[in-house]
Amino acid sequence: MDIIGLDLGGTKCTVIKGTDKGNPQQVARFPTQGPEETLAKIFTAVEQMDPGDKPVFGISAGDPMDAVKGLLLGPPNMPGWDYVEIVREMTDRFGGEAYLMNDANAGALAEWQFGAAKGCKNVVFCTHGTGMGAGLILDGRLYEGTNGSAGEIGHTRLSEDGPVGYGKRGSFEGWCSGGGITRYAQQRAKELNGNVAFNPGKIEDITTKDVAVSAENGDKLAQEILAISGKYLGQGLGMIIDILNPEVIVLGSLYLRCGKFFEKTMQQELKKETLPQSLKNCRIVPMALAEKISLYAPICTALYRKGMMR
Predict the structure, then answer these.
(1) Are 240 and 124 in contact (CB under 8 A)?
(2) pLDDT by residue (tens digit) across 77-116?
(3) In order of start, what are the domains of the chain with their CATH numbers?
C-alpha cells in the first residue's frame, strides 16, 4: 500500500510518502499559494513519488472543514481556499482513497503513535501554537464528536474580557495562543506608548516571538505577559483534566519553546483549580515530534482511517 501525506499549512505545504508503518521516506516542501498554484505543485510532487495504482492519501489542514465530504471551508491561515474539494482533487487525479482531518486530531494521532503520548490510552494534544485546538484520544480511540468538532477548546471563555481568539474575547485561544499573546502584547505596548523592549519599531508588528526573545533576555514585562498566559493555560488545562481525566496532555510549539515562562503560573492554577487525584495522574509534557509533526500527522491520518493504527 502506498501512503501519501499532505500537510496543508498557511505558509508551506508538505507532501510525504510514507511506509505502512508510518515512517516518512520522501518529502517535498513548497510555499502555500492559492489553490490552483498549490494543487499543481502537489500533483507534481506526488507524481515524482510514484504513488502507485491505489494510493491512500492522508490530508491534514486547519479548520474549518467538512472532513466527511473532503472539503476545505476557508481556513483563516489559507486565504482563497474556500470550498476546495481536496479529497476529490486527489482521487480524481490519482485514484485510490483520500481522508481529510483537522490538524489537531492528526497531531494527536502522531504524538500518540510516535511521540510524547506513545503507549497511553487517554491523551489530549493541544496545538498551543498560532491557534489553540485539541485532539482527543479517549480509551484508545480518536474522539471526534457528532460532526467532527470535538476538541475546540480555544472557543471556551476563560474571562469576561481579554485578548480575542476564535472570535471571542477572553477565550482560551485569546489568552494562550500565539495570535492571542501577540494581541495582548500589542495592547500592553500601546498602554506604554510603545516604550517596551519587544517593540520592533511599530506596535502592530510586535509578535509572540518578539516577546519570547525579550523574556529570554530578562525583560520583566515580556516575562509577565507570558506568565499571565501561563495562568490561563493552567485554568484551561484544569477544566480538561477534570472533565476527561487524561493520562497525558501534550502541548505544542509554544510550550516547547517557552515552557519555562508558563510553568510556574500554570502549575499554581492547576493546583488551585483541579481535582487532586486527576491532576496527580496526568502528565503535562511538550510535544516530542516538534517540526517533524508535519511529516507524521498526515501519514497517521491515512493509517488511522484504514484501521492500521492501534
Answers:
(1) yes
(2) 898 999 999 999 999 999 999 999 999 999 999 999 999 9
(3) 3-103+292-305 (3.30.420.40), 116-288 (3.30.420.40)
Residues paired with residue 4 on neighbouring β-strands, in sequence order:
17, 57
* CA angle, residues 296, 298, 303, in degrees to nearest 5: 90
pTM listed for this prediction? 0.94
Cell of 302: 491515512
Q: Which grid cell is 149?
A: 468538532
CB 60 within 8 A of CB 304: no
225 pairs with which residues across the strands? none
CA distance 185 to 123: 31
Grid cell of 11 as nine digits:
505558509
Number of C-beta neighbours around residue 171 at 10 A: 26
- Closest Cα to residue 222, out of 256, 255, 185? 185
Write the Ramachandran bin of 5: left for phi over 0, alpha for psi from -120 to 50, otherwise beta. Answer: beta
pLDDT along the chain (310 residues), means of 10: 92 94 94 96 96 95 92 90 96 96 96 97 96 96 90 95 94 96 98 96 96 98 98 98 98 96 98 98 98 96 90
Owner of C-alpha cell 490561563: 232
Q: Report the candidate in 44, 18, 51, 47 with the shortest Cα–Cα distance to residue 30.
A: 44
Query: pLDDT by residue (tens digit) across 231-243?
Result: 999 999 999 999 9
* Of 148, 154, 170, nearest in space to 305 by CA: 148
